[in-house]
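Internal ticket - ligand job 634, adenosine-5'-diphosphate:
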Amino acid sequence: MADQSSGKTIRFKAEIAQLLDILVHSLYKERDIFLRELVSNAADALTRMQFEMLTNQDVLDADTELAIKIELKEEGDQKVLIVKDSGVGMTRDELIQNLGTIAQSGAREFIQRLEKDEANPADIIGRFGVGFYSAFMVADEIRVISRSYRKRAKAAAWVSQGGESFQIEEANKEDRGTEIHLRLKNEAQEFSDDYALRQIVKKYSDYVGYPIYVAGEIANQQLPLWKKRPAEVEDEEYKQFYQQHTMDFEEPLATIHFASDAPLHVRALLFIPAKREKSVLNLRKEPGVELFSHNVLIQEYCQDLLPRWLDFIYGIVESEDLPLNVSRESIQNTRVMRQLAKSIRKRVLRELRQMADDGSEQYAEFWQQYQRPLKEGLTVEPEDKDEMLPLFRFYSSRSEGALTSLDAYIANMPNDQEDIYYVLGEDKQTVAFSPHLDPFKARQIEVLYWVDPIDPFISPVLTEYKGKKFRNVDDAGVDIPGDDSSPNDVEQEDLIGEADFNLLIGRFVTTLGDRVLEVRQSAILKDSAVRLVSPADSPDRDMQRLYKYLEQEYQVPKKILEVNRQHGLIANLAQLINENPGDEIINLTIEQLYESALVIEGLHPNPVLMMPRIQAILELAVESEIGSHATENS
Ligand code: ADP
Ligand code: MG
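stdout (structure tokens):
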């Protein structure tokens, strides 16, 4: 068959040779996955053929059935397993390129992974783009004979014993496609059995969309998973399908499978990946779903079915109502496509809302992973906000560490509360100490914590929800409903006289200079000594937060400092200013109060810089204690 004289020996790329060394000498469990890998390559080649033929009929064997055939044969006392397909085939150059000489980062990563955690290679090899080589787990020689669909191309063979190199030879093959001949190792004889092969096909490749013949009989159901009735599919099947199609190591966070026949034929199997961040090995290189019609992949990355802010959803959508014979560009604008998009979007949103309303851990995880695209979506496509906002979740001053929804917030509002209140800050622990919360705590009014770095971006867009306005509690002009007189709270008398208080305010102003816009008495603070507020309705108040987050030139924004005249510390400070204005602890205290307020706001550029001052204050405090004891004792 092969003409040895024209043969050529070519070295494998180093990482492939290393991979082969591991596989050839291995005796791993689950070696049967080699068949899954070969079948999956064959199916890929068939799909590419089918796709080619949508626009080009001038191919070799245009009428041949698209199928995979698995056969056994004996050569002397050797058993040979053959996997054959009528797919696109490979030319001599493609054989050289695809099987051994292309740089393969996947091989390197696969080997590293084996070294790291002793994973069973059979389990994971398919995920590294080197599935073909897994056949060396069961074969001591592999011969690939292939003929491209291009009419002028000649057949060629690739042969290797799994060492450092492979040979390329001429070959006789009349029909289109690829044959993989595996000379089975002595210790892999269990694969020379039709029954066993059929079982393996069922196990791994049942839904492959082409007939797989084992010894002449079809062994797979062929019904792609997304075409099955959802009730008939096991969770494990979804998981396997997802992992094989994405090479994601993790299970999907959620699976959405539905079918409908009217008004439109739709089959959809969609997945929300567990993580937003994709590994480099993920097969999905772009966002979008795979769009099929009549078993043909029309578009590999279709982004016209779901809004941009849901583009992390991967899956397969098939509709027989889509026309096959139009270009991708024109399909986009068809009425069917718009209907399809509407139906998919509606269904996905329904599932998400359902998951959200269940208040499940799954949804908390979803929100953790995907709040960013949703929030970004809100700024880019604010017209979709009625669909998005019911999905939003926040921590709040009353949610006890759990996430709450805007609907739940509204349901808990007292009758006289008109607005939705939120506080911006760095994280939920810090913001819980925010002085802005004083009056809200006193009145038991819930305040949402906006502590994600991109929350300041949404505040300009998020103006109202269900007729309720959003209000930042650091707004100097915010009104707070109800009163704060709790039963044991008698009208407080001012601790500081007017003159002393004015003196104190003056001292704050001279000490802080133009770092603040104004210093004034607070009408609402209870437990906190001071707070920083933004002038009423200042639209650009959060610009600096954005710069800080984006690591651009950040300047501490100028705010109004409100002082709590009722606070013990402030009263004592006023007294000290009156009695001993030169005491050095006065300025230190004012500076520290201001900077602590910045920390609470999440606006301090570098809190560590406060340390020397805190140290100085501690020293003075301890020293004055000694002083006072000395006076007591004398
Ligand atoms: P992957 O399938 O992830 O690309 P493999 O190691 O399984 O990696 O296959 C390597 C390449 O060899 C494929 O990408 C394809 O180009 C080629 N190939 C393998 N099997 C076939 C086949 N049956 N028909 C055509 N090309 C194939
Ligand atoms: Mg493969």
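Auto-summary: The domain at 394-491 is CATH 3.40.50.11260 (Rossmann fold). Residues 37, 41-42, 45, 85, 87-88, 90, 98-99, 129-132, 178 surround adenosine-5'-diphosphate (ligand 1) (CB under 6 Å).
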